[in-house]
Design a protein that fits this description.
This protein is of the alpha/beta class and about 200 residues long. The chain has one domain: Rossmann fold, CATH 3.40.50. About 25% of the residues lie in helices and about 25% in strands. It contains 5 helices and 8 strands, in the order E-E-H-E-H-E-H-E-H-E-E-H-E. Helix 4 links the parallel strand 5 and strand 6. The protein starts with a strand and ends in a 7-residue tail after the last strand. About 5% of the residues have low confidence.
């Protein structure tokens, strides 16, 4: 798939190999969804990941010196931002091996290295993961389990519709530029949310 190394719109400190033409997600799969081959989410810088990356770049203390796992990493933008900010180790995790490979390739383009696996992450990142009624419950369970094991959980969500807001508290919001062909708008207001502790859940 043709991509071009280019600065990320909302985090110009970082560059990623991204699609450089006005196409939508399923344009890259011939207009079809195949359950055995995930669509190339990694070829785009989604709003949630960009917002998380911006938050970390603005607040490096959130990850500096800590073990970090970025779940559903996609292009790896949030993972790469964590590494840029001095995290001790960063894992880019995704069910799509192509996404993990893309994240490592993008990290290398920024002279950074991602770990193959991080044990007992202290911070778990998740950008744009509540986009469907089937994915959201599984992601909620995964993030709650990480939080119960002691990890700080940060989520970037642009109002996808399946976000379990009651489990989180809003940290800040950004207006993130996005490709109009992908989102049918040129920007999305995207929240950075921190998962509440067991005693703070509503």
């Amino acid at each position: 798939m043709p991509t071009k190394l280019q600065p990320v719109p909302f985090t110009p400190e970082l560059s990623l190999h991204l699609v450089d033409r006005p196409v939508g997600l399923f344009d890259l799969t011939g207009g079809e969804f195949r359950s055995d081959e995930p669509p190339p989410f990694w070829a785009f810088a989604w709003a949630g990941g960009q917002a998380l990356a911006r938050y970390l770049l603005d607040h490096p203390d959130q990850v500096a010196g800590r073990r970090v796992r970025d779940v559903a990493t996609g292009s790896g933008v949030a993972a790469i931002a964590a590494a840029f900010c001095g995290a001790a180790e960063v894992e880019a995790a995704d069910i799509d091996p192509a996404a993990v490979a893309a994240a490592h390739r993008n990290a290398a383009a920024n002279n950074l290295t991602l770990a193959d696996r991080v044990t007992d992450p202290e911070v778990v990142l998740a950008g744009d993961v509540f986009y469907s009624p089937t994915v959201a419950p599984a992601m909620t369970s995964l993030l709650r389990a990480a939080q119960q094991r002691g990890a700080s959980v940060l989520v970037g969500d642009p109002g996808r519709g399946y976000f379990p807001e009651r489990l989180f508290e809003l940290v800040t919001e950004y207006v993130v530029p996005v490709p109009a062909v992908l989102e049918e708008t040129e920007s999305l207001t995207t929240g950075i949310w921190k998962m509440r502790g067991p005693r703070n859940k509503l």
